[in-house]
Design a protein that fits this description.
Elements: E1 2-7, H1 12-22, E2 27-37, E3 42-43, H2 50-60, E4 64-69, H3 75-91, E5 96-98, H4 105-116, E6 121-123, H5 131-140, E7 144-151, H6 166-171, E8 185-191, E9 203-214, E10 219-229
Parallel strand pairs: 1-2, 1-5, 2-4, 5-6
Antiparallel strand pairs: 2-3, 7-8, 7-10, 9-10
Length: 230
């Protein structure tokens, strides 16, 4: 039996990965791991606060390991933090680290190579499932989620804080992946079969984070829009 930990983002993909793992008798899930920003005390990329994360953890009933990283760490520092946490887990008998990635081959290879340095295995329970099929299954299982971060390169302001449901999927621009796997959006999952009870929440202020993109012709501003989950 695999003794495993799962990287938890608070969103739909990690929620679905956790559900798949819980149905697998060959995996003993010991804990979840979440990467948090030291400066803002929020989940990296998703922007979900530690307070809301703790509400999720209570309803999951699974121990959590919080991996703290500086605001906008360089890659070397992130890898140092990641490997330190995973090496400590290996010493405690963990042999597998689980991720919710779906089809980004370069990201999978990166994760596998990192873990290979310390003799751990990566497992991807959602790997290569068609995202239209995956999001349909997600909703049919009773999961509920909203967008908590959108890329303004892919979506406009009207998409932030929206429930992901059939209407959302029908209206989604054709170029946008139904699971946001290319970084078009990130989510906060507040209900579903992995939780004892739904997570109470409210939505608050919007925050724009600019991102400067350099092209051959000129520099232009892109960025991400976050909504505070309270």
């Amino acid at each position: 039996m695999k003794k495993a930990v799962l990287f938890w983002s608070g969103g739909k993909d990690s929620a679905m990965a956790l559900h798949k793992v819980q149905q697998d008798p060959g995996i003993e899930l010991i804990a979840i791991i979440t990467t948090l920003n030291e400066k803002y005390q929020r989940i990296s990329m998703h922007g979900i606060s530690e307070t809301i994360l703790d509400r999720q953890v209570v309803q999951l009933g699974i121990p959590i390991i919080k991996m703290w990283v500086p605001n906008e760490p360089d890659n070397n520092l992130y890898e140092e933090k990641f490997l330190k946490v995973c090496l400590n887990l290996k010493e405690k008998g963990i042999d597998t680290v689980i991720f919710g990635d779906i089809f980004l081959d370069d990201l999978r290879l990166y994760r596998e190579n990192l873990l290979d340095q310390i003799g751990l295995k990566a497992y991807f329970p959602l790997w290569k499932i068609r995202t239209k099929q995956l999001i349909k299954e997600f909703l049919e299982l009773g999961f509920r989620t909203i967008t908590c971060c959108i890329s303004l390169k892919s979506l406009d302001n009207s998409w932030i804080g929206r429930q992901i449901d059939e209407q959302f999927l029908k209206q989604l621009p054709e170029k946008v992946d139904p699971c946001g796997e290319n970084g078009e959006f990130h989510t906060f999952c507040y209900a579903g079969p992995i939780y004892r009870e739904a997570i109470p929440y409210q939505t608050g202020e919007l925050l724009y984070k600019p991102l400067m993109i350099k092209t051959k012709k000129m520099d232009h501003e892109d960025g991400f829009l976050f909504i505070d989950i309270l």
